[in-house]
Amino acid sequence: METKQSHSPNNFSIAVDYDHKATEFHPFSLSSPHMRAFHLAWLSLFSCFFSTFAIPPLLEVIRKDLNLTQTDIGRAGIASFIGSIFSRLVMGLACDVFGPRVASATLSLFTAPIVLSTSLVSSAKGFILVRFLIGFCLANFVASQFWMSSMFSGCVVGLANGFAAGWAIVGSGMTQLAMPLVYTLFTSCFNIPSSISWRIAFIFPAIFQAATAILVLVYGQDLPDGNYERKTTIKQSENFGSVLLNGLKDYRGWILGLTYGFCFGVELTTDNIIAEYFYERFHVNIEMAGAIAASFGLANCVSRPVGGIISDKMGKTFGMRGRLWSLWAVQTVAGLMCVLLGRVNTIGVSVVVMACFSLFVQAASGLTFGIVPFVSKR
């Protein structure tokens, strides 16, 4: 790849290393290109999480309207998860070839109409298919982390990744709160039938996602010194096969993938079922179930960045061992909280345990991505 030069070292408003990657992180700055990329990355991913988890808080309403069985709902959840995994594998290649800006925006623009098409679903098969395709939205997570690793140096990349992902995943909580309120607004204030109200509600996440994609294309920049220029050659194709093979043979990548499945994978699963869980087990109304479920995702605003901070601090003090042991400790506590959540029988205690669980499982995700950039420079 080549880049279009747009900055000289003296033009950066933030301290950079020899690769012009930022060695400082100022989350409330909009300086270009580093901090602007940060804000575009998390906002675009926020919209994707908002879209992906817009269905679960309205699941009870959708189930009654489409006559879905518990098996249908379970299959739809699995389909969403599979779509997320498949698309992430492809997104890694897309970022290498086209750069994170184009890859991210293209995916968002492609999936926004799919989000909108949720309002047209009329059968269980259609519902499962839509959930599978909407799962593709979460591949934007790869583009976001790729972008942060391209813009920030190793001394702050864990922090940048933690904040970008943490603020973005708040979208999974906001949608749990917002979608039931939008649905209630149409049914209560405008007297629109329930079967139509939940369909209209999906217009909003679709528009939001498309708007953020356009912002990324217009204002984003792939690298500190410019954007990717695609230059495909036979040699590059051969290099890709070699790099892929080396990656597949690296046992550390497989271990981190498994570890991430037990923190972020568990978090995604919880986001899909937590509103329905409180609705059915404790018989709260749909708005209250959404509010409780929202608190699980909203915790990412703090917990995931804290994971990144802990990783960087432990890395500076104890090296890579510090990053690894802190991940193990935090994820172990998350596992214990998850077990406890399934055993408590009162709503008050259940909410408290869920809040503790969310803090630790999300911090573990931040800690994981404090390690990822150091696995292989290639």
From TrEMBL:
Q: For this UniProt entry, which segments traverse the membrane? A: 40-61, 73-90, 102-121, 128-147, 167-186, 198-220, 282-303, 324-342, 348-375
Primary site of residence: membrane
Keywords in alphabetical order, please.
Membrane, Nitrate assimilation, Transmembrane, Transmembrane helix
Q: Where does it localize?
A: Membrane
Membrane topology annotation: Multi-pass membrane protein
The record, for CDD domains, names:
MFS_NRT2_like
Any idea where the Major facilitator superfamily (MFS) profile domain is? 37-378
Please report which protein family the annotation says this sequence is part of.
Belongs to the major facilitator superfamily. Phosphate:H(+) symporter (TC 2.A.1.9) family. Belongs to the major facilitator superfamily. Nitrate/nitrite porter (TC 2.A.1.8) family.
Which protein are we looking at?
A: Major facilitator superfamily (MFS) profile domain-containing protein
Question: Which organism's genome codes for this protein?
Answer: Datura stramonium
Q: What is the lineage of its organism?
A: Eukaryota, Viridiplantae, Streptophyta, Embryophyta, Tracheophyta
